[in-house]
Fold each of these.
Amino acid sequence: MFVERFKSKIVSHFSYFIGSKGDAVVVDPERNCSIYLKTAQRENMNIRYIFETHRHEDFVVGSRELAHLSGAEVYHGSWPDFTYGNVLRDNQEFRVGDVMVTAIHTPGHTPGCMSYIVADLESGYEAVLVCTGDALFVNDVGRTDFGGPDKRREWSESLFMSIVGRILPLGDHVILCPAHGSGSVCGSNIASREWSTLGIERLMNPVLRLSKEEFIEYKVNERHEYAPYFRLMEHYNIEGAPFLGAGQNCKAFSAEEFRSQMDSGAVILDVRSPSAFGGAHIPSSYNIPVDVLSFAGWFLPFDKPVLAVTNDVDDLEYVSKSLASIGYDNVVGYLGGGLSSWYSIGYPIESLRLVVFSQLKSWLDSGKEYFLLDVRSKDEYEEGHIKFAKNIYVGLLQERIKEIPKDLPIVVICGSGTRASIGASILLRNGYKRVYNFLGAMRSWKELGYPLSK
Amino acid sequence: MFVERFKSKIVSHFSYFIGSKGDAVVVDPERNCSIYLKTAQRENMNIRYIFETHRHEDFVVGSRELAHLSGAEVYHGSWPDFTYGNVLRDNQEFRVGDVMVTAIHTPGHTPGCMSYIVADLESGYEAVLVCTGDALFVNDVGRTDFGGPDKRREWSESLFMSIVGRILPLGDHVILCPAHGSGSVCGSNIASREWSTLGIERLMNPVLRLSKEEFIEYKVNERHEYAPYFRLMEHYNIEGAPFLGAGQNCKAFSAEEFRSQMDSGAVILDVRSPSAFGGAHIPSSYNIPVDVLSFAGWFLPFDKPVLAVTNDVDDLEYVSKSLASIGYDNVVGYLGGGLSSWYSIGYPIESLRLVVFSQLKSWLDSGKEYFLLDVRSKDEYEEGHIKFAKNIYVGLLQERIKEIPKDLPIVVICGSGTRASIGASILLRNGYKRVYNFLGAMRSWKELGYPLSK
Amino acid sequence: MFVERFKSKIVSHFSYFIGSKGDAVVVDPERNCSIYLKTAQRENMNIRYIFETHRHEDFVVGSRELAHLSGAEVYHGSWPDFTYGNVLRDNQEFRVGDVMVTAIHTPGHTPGCMSYIVADLESGYEAVLVCTGDALFVNDVGRTDFGGPDKRREWSESLFMSIVGRILPLGDHVILCPAHGSGSVCGSNIASREWSTLGIERLMNPVLRLSKEEFIEYKVNERHEYAPYFRLMEHYNIEGAPFLGAGQNCKAFSAEEFRSQMDSGAVILDVRSPSAFGGAHIPSSYNIPVDVLSFAGWFLPFDKPVLAVTNDVDDLEYVSKSLASIGYDNVVGYLGGGLSSWYSIGYPIESLRLVVFSQLKSWLDSGKEYFLLDVRSKDEYEEGHIKFAKNIYVGLLQERIKEIPKDLPIVVICGSGTRASIGASILLRNGYKRVYNFLGAMRSWKELGYPLSK
Amino acid sequence: MFVERFKSKIVSHFSYFIGSKGDAVVVDPERNCSIYLKTAQRENMNIRYIFETHRHEDFVVGSRELAHLSGAEVYHGSWPDFTYGNVLRDNQEFRVGDVMVTAIHTPGHTPGCMSYIVADLESGYEAVLVCTGDALFVNDVGRTDFGGPDKRREWSESLFMSIVGRILPLGDHVILCPAHGSGSVCGSNIASREWSTLGIERLMNPVLRLSKEEFIEYKVNERHEYAPYFRLMEHYNIEGAPFLGAGQNCKAFSAEEFRSQMDSGAVILDVRSPSAFGGAHIPSSYNIPVDVLSFAGWFLPFDKPVLAVTNDVDDLEYVSKSLASIGYDNVVGYLGGGLSSWYSIGYPIESLRLVVFSQLKSWLDSGKEYFLLDVRSKDEYEEGHIKFAKNIYVGLLQERIKEIPKDLPIVVICGSGTRASIGASILLRNGYKRVYNFLGAMRSWKELGYPLSK
């Protein structure tokens, strides 16, 4: 039995290729199907089945395109009403080579969630691994808020029953294969470790140490963000997204063309680091550093051309493929030659003032007036923040922009200075002038032992 | 000014990417356009124009797909009647950055052939390089037989006038950028060296040392093969081929599936070496070793699935991309696990006897009767062959199969043992039993100083 | 916590890179250390400790060179008397970032074997994975024969106690990280699946279902091969091998030079497939197909130049790196241009007759006399073989060559036709003429339901 | 005949691999020899000869190490007194396959300079290409200042005679293969185009249009910079540099370790863009953006550890290999996790104010006092600069630092903002506080049509 895990970094999504003796299954494929086809070729395997654990909300699932390319059949649960693929029965079994896959119904994250138990008949009938989708993660469990407030209690109870009644009983020895890892918005506290087992979760997953009532209470009150692009993902993953094929070509534009595209409505996405964006950037660009690219789903429009700014042409493939994996087929170009093409012909740049701990501290101590804007999530904020800082989550900043005063210097704060740079770019786009990004942010604040308000 | 040459190995085709200051042109793109888009991205350039030197006969030109992906405009000559792109005027000029391209009419290979003179205005107005398409090669000139026997003299004269009247006068210093290199069927004697200039050709190209009359006579009498797949290429290159996109997926088949595909009419293409094919192969497969893959154009059908046999999964990408570059979008699979998947379940194999010089010599000396089949081109044959050997070009063997006796052992002979393996596989497919491939073939025969008939 | 497993394919050896927050440990590094340094760089980690589970017998451990390059400290058990590194105490703990490593003494495979329990303090103190070296594999346990017959019972008991008393009690939930996978000679029946846990092994590993007495009896009577190169590995792994650095350069030789090197004593290693070797090969070469390269350790000398024959230049890097990983620093060249360079100048080739099931069956049925030589291991042979076949393990064939009659045609048999090709090449080197390789071999024989003797 | 050109980007150095029928020569190899060995392997060729055009001054030549690895022989001219290799006779000939190499003495750049004429006997005896080292470049000729002022006239005359008397007479048709391309300090005005011929140079190279007297006068008065690291290169290239082997390992350091290394004397090399350096950087680091890395040779010590700062781990291989190619074997580490590792624990950062055209213009117009420091070369400065700007070449800034006033804000100016960032980092290291980098610099100044002083 052969197992390979694939990670789609932008949304920290895991998919699985499991095969034996020339045949294989894929669980929860990402949109860029070529990775599975290449593995199939290298391993001399044929993809027979594609299993979806559930209707994904945060990325475009590649099932339909992969089925088209490989000839495999798609299977998923009975909710929602998918327009493609086959609906599974609980306990339905599939065999490829020595691999036996058993689909079990594990609702909670959504009513249609399935998990896939995998046995390796070369060794015996015991479960070897289980693909749990968004039911169970390393150190966390799935969200239960997608049905809206009315369903939340019901779905949370359902999730508890699925985990406690169907997944954990498979045994401590079973390897855990979830759909997401650390950094995903589908869980709040997924661990950075990607290797786990049901036993490890039973022993150490903090959510699983709660009683049923505590669990439900915890889940009902948990806070999650709902990024606007989810809506399109949900639509795509029910109806089937347009095929990716070879993907969108991302062209070099000269500074002149770039400016003219901007004038016609193109949106500028600067993926450079907070330091570089702080140093100099094109006015009215969004800064979404390449390692937190999924925040694009909060702001970037699907219906206008998106143009990238980067100093590293090698980033472009990652940027365009990753944005395509969350449905953006409109990354049509980039600034050829990077920012220096822009300023070398005298086009205007803007900077964002960067401040570190020692400076901020002295300002605050000096009594000068600042508006401290903490763009972390409400949970992070409540765990400890700088006194007087106001909390608006970075994803909601655009729509709550009116709450920010125009007459004060604004210091944007997050955990390390990265999300704050996104937030600061939004403020600059909205005409705010005296904006600071606090580099190091709460991490350095805590590191140096300064007082936190709760 | 930036220049990059791309080589499509299967038909030894060269294309050129030439750019300056953010803009670029591509000359004679191959079907797999992603290579130009990647270069454009790496060099921060935008492809503005795509130039075709002529209606290519031996591969699918990628102009239309590249234009679609890059937004560039396509230009070509006035013959034939292309259904896409723009027709050039003689001496029409194009400028991208410091690059000045001048299109000149250089008919002969076809009536519509264009050459593209490139100057680098950073240095001055003198020509720096010229893209000559199939007019002038390193050590050879283009074929003049595509118009049929009636036009051949006229086209040959035309070619002479184009080379002598328009290309060579550009000056000895001009770098030669032809559409083909060594191994192409578009010339008979193209040198292996890929770097040349007009001066080098003027001084050393043997065809350019002929007088006009000698040149015409030589060209009119020159022999060329016309591979059947050319017809589809000509059609595609006038009408525009289907877009390649991400290309055809090439699946692993189990031996059982492979056999069942064969039973339903799939054609087997064994791309292993002559030694490996000789050792063991699946009955009724074609052997076209991976380094002479273009012979596929003589035999492989376009309307049936093609299945590959190789021991090296890494070959598959080359095989499927290369066959796609000559129009085969039907390479749907391969034997997963290679030949051992086949014989390990007891399926029958066949071998092809391999013989080297010393053995063949002793057989011939012993007076035993053999049918010697020389599958090289008529020209090669006439330059020297083994006494009594009969010449049938490997490309024509299938249709002339009746000329081969069934009651004698047959020794297939080529230059080195590679084309002979193709020929031998055709004989085996046609029921011949006592077939030998002479490894080393004429090369070893000559190396060892044995007598040649002429 | 970050974990990456590396596989050295030639001996199916696993090493592990485990890190957290900028620091890392490596367990059982292979000789080519650059792979760990690259991972360290990509993950922004510093290698602090290198742990050896035991004195490896089948490959060169890279500890000393990796320590030199990274500044890390090496640790291992107290047996044998290593000339480098530090000796561990039982239960000694090491911490890097959130990773806690506890070394435990798990003798049996050797008296000095250590296992390394890894906890991820981000989640808690429970063990997450354990590196068991050659104590416990997926579906098998380590050999106990390296101490010689006198120690075997003692070591076997010791191994039982280590597994049952120290490893399994860590809990079903713990992920198993052994030093070898399927194909290794360090276990007889390691499963192809590379993912397992202690619980999976407790439930399904057949050796772990034996009682203590049964286990000891089983291990004492188990048969293992001891490849001659092990002796050098043991020496290197106590004393420290020469540093690999950038590795040996492997040069192209012309056929003439190749022959002259052969005349001066160079050994020829043909890594092509059994079909290709069968079709044609250079007389007196060993055939060790690239996918079973570790058999080199049975035959290849360390003190003479080794020259490779392959048709695929891309194999060379794998061949020379892999042979270096088992101590061969003498792969100095290869036949440039592959076999056709050889036969194209008329040099002699030899072939090896290949036979498949149907032919062999009809021969046997016809009563013609053949010597059937089964080169599989004694265990495989005893599980079922063709009547009258004589068993000599391929590794011992050279030294037992006198047992093979010179006056009969010899059919060499293994599982699939690969090891038989090695064996046949040894026979040919020793002057046997009528040698056949049975392609498909016992696999096809069983597939087709023919009778087996036991 | 096969030709491949290799480019070592850091010093824009070209080397050449030229081969035929299994044998090859390499001209002017760079220190990282593995690139030639890989090509030799891919092309099935054996490197027989290594030719040096001259004692290189700006990079470490790899001849001795490549000779050691390949068995090839090294040849060079008779000046200086090399401690390795063989001295050539004028017109000495070498043959490998169909390639004929003729070494000719072309002094001028140094007294021992050789050029190598290459003919392809497959086509004939005419020269096909010539490797001219530092005698003749595309659009420029070599420096003549390395012998000191006393020799300069003599060497310049010598160079003229070599070009006019020996190189150009080879014919317009000969392809030019120089040792350097655009960006090299070995020529002032080398064109960006890398393809040229002797004829193209004869027609368009501005230096070749001068009379002998004009040429000498021009060369004698030409200004060149002499970077301090040249001295070590000259030494290495006479004595032979230490072998590179697998190269220096470049380790991730935590911010704490990084700081402690700094405290022990390590030098910090920040290779990020001017924008990023401007935004935030570690105090007292040098900024040498990755695309102008060769400036390291002006400042970086050879005898202290060098630590890199970059946000892109992928840059590290380029940085350490490239610095090794100019003799820096002391790039021992980098800041793991990039700059955010530093500021996230509250360590201090510094910024460099960035200004663009419009701001600078308004400041200047306002009459406020600024010290304008133009760090371009004297030639560039004299071609046109901003009024009142003082010129100190960036390479000399450290030693002339006293000429910069401490009491004025300083605006550093170069062509585009890149070298100015190097200069500004030097000022900051020297305690200057009010330092500005003018992004876009003279390029935007000219683009917008503002007045230049000459």
Note: The mean pLDDT of chain D is 96.
Amino acid sequence: MKSPIAVVVLAAGAGTRMKSALPKVLHPLAGWPMVRHVLESAARLKPSRIVGVVAPGAKDVAAAFAPHSRTVQRTPLGTGHATKTALPALKGHRGPVLVVYADAPLITTATLQRLVDACRKAKSAVGVLGFVARDPSPYGRLIMRDGRLERIVESRDADATEKAIDFCNSGVMCLDGALIGSLLGAIKNDNVKSEFYLTDAVAAARAAGHVTIAVEGEEAEFQGINSRAELAVAEKTLQQRLRAAAFEAGVSMADPDTVWLAADTKFAADVTIGPNVRFGPGVSVASGTEIRAFCDIEGARIGRDAIIGPFARIRPGSDVADQVHIGNFVELKATRMGRGAKANHLAYLGDADIGAASNIGAGTIAVNYDGYGKWRTVVGADAFVGSNSSLVAPVKIGRGANVTAGSVITEDVPAGAVAFGRARQVTKKGRAAPLRAKLKARAAAAKRAKNK
Amino acid sequence: MKSPIAVVVLAAGAGTRMKSALPKVLHPLAGWPMVRHVLESAARLKPSRIVGVVAPGAKDVAAAFAPHSRTVQRTPLGTGHATKTALPALKGHRGPVLVVYADAPLITTATLQRLVDACRKAKSAVGVLGFVARDPSPYGRLIMRDGRLERIVESRDADATEKAIDFCNSGVMCLDGALIGSLLGAIKNDNVKSEFYLTDAVAAARAAGHVTIAVEGEEAEFQGINSRAELAVAEKTLQQRLRAAAFEAGVSMADPDTVWLAADTKFAADVTIGPNVRFGPGVSVASGTEIRAFCDIEGARIGRDAIIGPFARIRPGSDVADQVHIGNFVELKATRMGRGAKANHLAYLGDADIGAASNIGAGTIAVNYDGYGKWRTVVGADAFVGSNSSLVAPVKIGRGANVTAGSVITEDVPAGAVAFGRARQVTKKGRAAPLRAKLKARAAAAKRAKNK
Amino acid sequence: MKSPIAVVVLAAGAGTRMKSALPKVLHPLAGWPMVRHVLESAARLKPSRIVGVVAPGAKDVAAAFAPHSRTVQRTPLGTGHATKTALPALKGHRGPVLVVYADAPLITTATLQRLVDACRKAKSAVGVLGFVARDPSPYGRLIMRDGRLERIVESRDADATEKAIDFCNSGVMCLDGALIGSLLGAIKNDNVKSEFYLTDAVAAARAAGHVTIAVEGEEAEFQGINSRAELAVAEKTLQQRLRAAAFEAGVSMADPDTVWLAADTKFAADVTIGPNVRFGPGVSVASGTEIRAFCDIEGARIGRDAIIGPFARIRPGSDVADQVHIGNFVELKATRMGRGAKANHLAYLGDADIGAASNIGAGTIAVNYDGYGKWRTVVGADAFVGSNSSLVAPVKIGRGANVTAGSVITEDVPAGAVAFGRARQVTKKGRAAPLRAKLKARAAAAKRAKNK
């Protein structure tokens, strides 16, 4: 049996270039905090442990690692030092140890697996992920000989021949768990910044007579994020991956560049998505459903053959059954729409439970908040709620009941009943002219007063 | 006089890679089913007949060809065989026969015309549209000699010299109507898939001593669509064409990449369109009108000097006259807005007829649906409908009438009348504190109950 | 001390390719009329005067130059002639005179400053801004010798050696104010169009024994705008500049390509902006605020730690204090929201003043317009306005008052009071079935009548 993998995630960097109160690795990407992408990629390797290395006082970052263990790097003395702080948490681990970066969230499980597999095959002490860089100038070069990694030359130390090499160091490494302690111990800080660089583990391993290797990945997977602009570039890369996967799953998107997906958005086949649709985390959409243009959907299940939008907002906790129609300028929040129910125009349904085949009229508000508590509105199946109604929760509208347009409903309506909550119309003939004369005079007087 | 043209449209492919219940050639592109683009490009050649070749049981595809004739290809035995099934429908036709593909919808009339013209001039038996491919590797190469097409070499059969040729076969052909029967009859299926390939008509014609030619077109015109991703790429190409035409017509688009046009969208000069506007099929917009950001418009005529949006939705059957204002979160459906009428904020006007210069207040709903029928609301000219009103159709508001804010109108309002349909205000001094105390206690009790 | 700078802005071109009633240089770019970008770039040089040269009758263009002086070019006789018409307005000016173009709005202050500095250093009579063109074929070439500009060769007059030069003339010039009169006087119109070209000032200066120089800038800065398509390209360039600056300032944008900024949009650090947000002119956003997807904001101040959108519209004259929440399908117009106030769902607040910590319910309308005048709604602090209410302005809701859901409020509500303006609910048991039967029969009858 193969020895288990451990993963060390370095997350102690400062991130000052973000100019943000939020720690860098918690900035959102495709609906998840940045670090979660690395954690998910790592978790799919089924490692025996994941260890986060965080800065002192970074409680929110540490919390993002739960339920994995994390250690605190007291002083920022470089990546080698950061990795060393994880050693106590790796006690007893003898298999491969991957070192990845919380601020390089585009790394894929497949690439990490290839590195581990290659390290196992070569029985290497250290394996490094490299990439062919479009512009190698900022990166350390991986000097290969006979299929092995001979050494890493930092860009500033490279001679002309080495500078011409475009195979570069990503920083992601796999170290032999039986050797990691001695390798890290051999790293020195005799450099300008007096830091301990993890990169030097390669030289340390070579000096001790061990094998070191490099495995090639795609440059895009290794993009580090240090600024808001780089965050946006990473978001774009992730979105392109997610959109390609959606196409493969049988989703149509008229303009994929304007469909924003979350890392966990789930689609069945034959879903159609118009331009300008944003999915927050936690959405699933079943087959045959059409999401029209200009929708914002988060934390919701959408059933089969539903029509959503345009201009619909569906908020967390909502459950939309098959064949439901949610139309323009309609907001659902923590609301269940039963099979075939409709809310097609300008409505707010918050904390509501709408029965199957019921129709919610235009302008209807489920009045869920009274300033202190949030209350539920329950509408039975086959009910008809007239336009511009206010359903003052907690309130129940029974199965097959009718609420007339413009009603304020404060008491439960039994099944099969008709509820009115509106005044009777009074029409005063010939009164528009004098009313308008009065309003006109008022406006004129106000204008005169203003100009005085 | 020139002999008339016939066009055969091959539409019998399976399209399994779309993963869709909808037949591939009916997937929408710029607001039309894919096949309609090919049919329109063909129709502009004014052919004497268009023949669709469809798969057995593909009723919806066959229907999309109406009023043109279509034949059914009983078994999928290749493009040569498919074309042969069209022969009965071509009986008596002696002029050029174009063979085009329902799943390659970007072909233009101009390119087809150039092919026909060249075939006529060269008196060729077969003419092929070719293109210079960025990556020729997947395509058959067109081997030219002395300005004539000598033969087509499939990619897998090409030698090194032929592989270096980047002039490729699009599959689109023009065959001499007097020879098409004999040419198709000469095609054999002695290949791996045992299919009859239309491409082999070239060799058949050469073997019979006829002239064959090739005419160059743009690669983009020949893109075939086999997956959702390719559908999106074709949509992008089409949108770019449509946007370029709109710019030429004198339309301003601040961000053209976020304006989605239908193939039939019509603009006068001096129309301004903000970012994020979607036009479904059937829209025309007259001069001087501004469509602001975030609008969705379909099946509607928009007059001159109107202001639409932001966040307006105009649905089919709507007619918006000159100088109308439609503001944010307003939906029109099958509604006529008279000259200078305004509905500026949060309103639903369905099945309504709003007179010239009338003002529809914020939050107004034309209550057009009672659960069984759809009814019309008619508002005369120069009327004033107060905010948050419900106009319960069928109902008429007369010319120059006023409806007060918050009214539910269930009976017709005569011209010049004032209608009230709301309760009188009752104010209870000092009652907010006890009310709030009660609500607060209720919320606290609910919380306690929940935590139990 | 350095002699002061003058700037001549040529704005007399016709712009017929725009196909627009609006003069070309007034077409909007990033929220400003095109010419304003040039004026702002010029103004940052702190010139002693700016002179606009406009066409006869172009009142709106002339007005756009205010408070700067402008002169009218009576007949369109070329750029040299246009510049000459500015001479009277330059009377007594001895320092550098920059000539720039109102329809090339991407020029930056930094580039203009470099030209002026180089001219001063070289004591040149004429300095020209040049650029290395991707495709030099349409442009005049700058022939340099010994670091000086020897001459400008028009593309049509260039020989093979000159055609190979890719350093091109932008048209932007800096002339010595003491010489400008004699230089322009020496320009002749002995060419095909019989026009006076400013370009010929170089030859005139050389003929008189003066020094002429060229300074290199970026091609993108010199893009002229002659069509709607070029306008869109310039908008894209400007947006990319503005977005890059926003990133630098510490703004997060998940998809920067769908955030449209105005030239004067102001952001504090740690602002987060979702996809699809449009900023019109005159917006500032304070730190910690999140603008969610699908918002349209113009002429408004947004405070700290506010949450705006998705689907919010904020119109000019609005002032949104710290910690305010503005939710979906909510429109503010000339409305002040006090600290911590909330309007989270489907509401129109026009000409309103909402007190701190007040809650505005879903569907609330501030009824600000009566057909003649616009009136203000004033809501005190800590008030609670129930859903679907209509506040008929002018009206005041006192501090700590409650307005019940569905109320029409036409009279002031004192502080601490509860106001009702709605009918009491009446429920009729068992009446839904007969009502529905009646409605169903009505629909059936209408259908029969229609089919007759």
Note: Residues 131 and 218 of chain B are 6 Å apart (CA to CA).
